[in-house]
Amino acid sequence: MVAIAWWWNDLRYVTSLVSRSTTSDAKLPPGHMGLPFFGEIFSFLWYFKILRRPDDFINSKRRRYGDGGGGMYRTHLFGYPAIIAWSPAVIKFVLQSDHLFPYSWPNSELVGYKSLSAAQGERHIQLRRFVSAQVNQPSALQRIALLAQPRMVESLRLWALKGTVTAFDEVRRLTFENIGKLFISMEPGPVLDTMVHCFVGLLKGARAQPINFPGTAYYYALQCRKKLVAIFRKELEKRKENESESQTRNDLMDGLMQVKDEDGNKLSEEEVVDTMIGLVVAGYEPSALASMWAIYYLAKFPMVLQKLREENMAIGGNKIGELITSNDVSKMKYTNKVVEETLRMANISAFIFRSGDEEVEYQGM
Fold first, then answer.
1. How far, in Å, CA of 185 to CA of 34, rounded?
2. pTM score, two decimals?
3. Which of the 8 DSSP states describes residue 208?
4. 77 has which bridge partners?
5. Residue 194 belongs to what domain range?
6. Does the keyword Iron apply (predicted)?
7. How many domains does the chain have?
8. Is residue 139 domain-shared with residue 9, that is, in the same domain?
9. Which residue spans within 122-168 are E strands per DSSP?
């Protein structure tokens, strides 16, 4: 019985996939899919949460299976069968093949079935185009730079007065305050504090086994999502009653409320709310982690900090009392390199989820 349980997922999924394959010599990457329902989640959490050495989860598989599959292993995580890609070549292939491997969360219930990550076809393209315009266009970058700076300047002043701060706590708070301003024009206060608390809970549940039972991280995450949905829906209703104020706000929620498809239909309330939640999830923790790691590495390499300070003072030093523009930011070449190197060294996203809904062959697998 123990042996059957140990190989249950392999017997269930691998046999089924091979039998349904369109090619007679179909192969899956080497690996082990673990126990029924749980798969390899306990081993995964052991390396990620307990030992805090996530690379060793992959290294343990490399020791057992070699580099089989060209940098891929089969497994079972977060309640679903999965393929782990670890080599740069395979990861590049997956990330550059959106049509084969669309972006997806394993537990879409948390982010929302109508969110950008869950949308398909033309709706996904439409939402992605709108979001890209909101954050990547020159006018959008200028607006973001002007909105975010006052809060950043004030935070730096307060940190200096404190003398010693916990970097991650402070940058996480600052990041969410800026998100609140940019996304729904919300100032710091009790509602924003509740949202921070709920998003932290939701993110923890997104990395947990999907067991919807009181006391589990997943159950708590679902409760957090319900609170967030209620907050966003209340804000939507307020805006519908005062549509004339949308021009003065010009934030992400107002923009989503005006998005129309090819038939002239606007997004439903559910689509707006799910997209808002999904975008906060995508931007909140990665931005905070990137800032925290930048502080860490700058403290570790004082020469880099000195060059960074010199560049920023050369560009912004003469703008006493004025805000730095997006054009000023584009001139900060060394600063940009510091950001890129921070992201390379820190690897702020431990894993990226993509779904595979059709059969794909890669190097014979």
1. 46
2. 0.82
3. S
4. 80
5. 121-286
6. yes
7. 2
8. no
9. none
